[in-house]
Design brief:
Layout: E1 2-13, E2 18-24, H1 27-31, E3 37-41, E4 52-55, E5 58-60, E6 63-69, H2 73-78, E7 86-93, E8 104-110, H3 114-123, E9 129-134, H4 143-148, E10 152-157, E11 164-165, H5 169-181, E12 186-191, H6 194-206, E13 211-214, E14 230-234, E15 240-244, H7 245-248, E16 251-253
Parallel strand pairs: 8-9, 8-12, 9-10, 10-11, 12-13
Antiparallel strand pairs: 1-2, 1-7, 2-6, 3-4, 3-7, 5-6, 13-16, 14-15
Length: 259
């Protein structure tokens, strides 16, 4: 884990709500693994002592990419940042996704839950399918980047404005069954709201495969000290314990999570 002052190299708008920051982050970028996150102190909000957590969208050539949505005071302030501004960043934090070999990876993203899955897609040996969902077409992000890597992309929107109409789990089930019928050993990797993650885990269990889930909790301190992100978890022997999502996760295999 490192604590650095990082210079903004690029700040690009994707839509009116979504943006990508690229920071020169040196050792943070070099050490980062897919599924990990960083904590950023937002300049101009000195009265707010807490940093904001962000999944790592990508890390390469010393640059750290952050995909974010403007949802509150902190991210709204971030919209005004420009090239050359500096941010205090702590990371990389958390455990990250396992980089599984010899499996067919199926990625499931809800909205900007696509961010850590893109980083994962750049590091996995096998190319599989990304199934991404959102309320409308405006919530479907960066699918072209996955296609450029050679991934199949399937889109689902609740209002039917892009791709198939419905929830992300419906086309995910189709992909899982088609790949399993073809003899592939599938594993699921997902990031999104809790309801989606729970459904993905149930799909995995019903098809006797693993699902690696990135839990969406409020990661206040990021290092396991404040206990604001406690989650009930299950050990392999069936006993339960209270884990900290920020330090014991945020990635868990679906069978570990007690919803």
């Amino acid at each position: 884990m490192y604590d650095f002052i990082c210079e903004i190299k690029e700040h690009n708008e994707i839509t009116s709500d979504y943006r990508v920051l690229k920071l020169y982050a040196g050792e943070i970028a070099e050490q980062a693994r897919p599924g990990q996150f960083v904590h950023i102190r937002i300049p101009g909000l000195e009265s707010a002592s807490l940093r904001r957590p962000f999944s790592i969208f990508n890390a390469q050539d010393g640059l750290l990419w952050i995909l974010y949505k403007s949802v509150g005071r902190g991210t709204e302030r971030m919209k005004s940042l420009v090239m050359g501004d500096e941010l205090q960043v702590i990371g990389p934090l958390g455990n990250g996704f396992p980089l599984r070999q010899n499996v067919m990876p199926l990625l499931a993203a809800g909205g900007y839950g696509v961010a850590p899955l893109y980083f994962l897609a750049t590091r996995l040996a096998n190319r599989g399918t990304l199934v991404v969902g959102g309320r409308s077409a405006e919530d479907i992000l960066v699918t072209d980047l996955f296609r450029d890597l050679g991934w199949k992309v399937v889109v689902a929107t609740v209002d039917g404005s892009l791709g198939v109409k419905g929830l992300v789990t419906e086309p995910l089930l189709d992909e899982l069954e088609n790949n399993t019928a073809a003899g592939a050993v599938c594993e699921l990797f997902a990031c999104g709201p809790d309801g989606m993650l729970r459904a993905v885990g149930e799909l995995a269990r019903s098809h006797d495969c693993k699902a690696w889930l990135s839990l969406d909790k409020h990661l206040v301190c990021g290092v396991g000290a404040c206990l604001a992100c406690v989650q009930k978890l299950r050990r392999s022997d069936g006993s339960t314990w209270m884990g900290r999502v920020c330090s014991d996760g945020p990635i868990f295999e679906a069978n570990e999570i007690v919803w």
